[in-house]
Amino acid sequence: MKIELDSQDSSINTIKSYSSDGVMIKNTLYKGNIIVSPSLIIEDWKAEDINNIDLDHLNVIFETQPELVLFGTGNNLIFPQNDILDSIRLRRIGVEVMDTGAACRAYNFIAAEGRLVTAILFKPEN
């Protein structure tokens, strides 16, 4: 699905579209699970799905120093384990869980506001 914003800051990573093929950021298609923040893209994140995230996977997210973390969990809403969510919250970082499409739209909106947001996006399946 294509995502359009009225005004875009070309200096930040903006999601143009998402599908079962991957996520298009600026003019690059990322085919695997990714992490995106306004200034950073991490391809091929080691967590294969939402159910196998462990605390070590979160270190790279904490390095981005977000005020909010969005989990895009594919086609369906699947919550990470409580210890993962608690680890984020204990650092006084907000966290939201939604399907990947909603996470892409929310990320663009929040990033366009100039806020420090990091999205963990799991690729939607066909």
Written account of the structure:
With 126 residues, this protein is an alpha/beta fold. The radius of gyration is 13 Å and the shape is globular. The strands form 2 sheets. A 5-stranded mixed sheet has the order 5-4-8-6-7, sandwiched between helices. Strands 1-2-3 form a 3-stranded antiparallel sheet, covered by helices on one side. 21% of the residues lie in helices and 29% in strands. It has helices at 59-63, 82-90, 100-112, and strands at 15-19, 22-25, 28-30, 34-37, 40-42, 68-73, 94-98, 117-122. The mean pLDDT is 89. A hairpin with a 2-residue loop joins strand 2 (22-25) and strand 3 (28-30).
Short description:
With 126 residues, the chain is an alpha/beta fold.
Number of strands: 8
Cα-atom Rg, whole angstroms? Answer: 13 Å
What CATH calls the topology is Hypothetical Protein Mth938, Chain: A
CATH architecture assignment: 3-Layer(aba) Sandwich
CATH superfamily: MTH938-like
- Ends distance: 13 Å
| Topology order in helix (H) and strand (E) letters | EEEEEHEHEHE
Shape: globular
Q: What oligomerization state is this entry in?
A: single chain
Low-confidence stretches: none
| Tally of separate domains | 1
The number of helices is 3
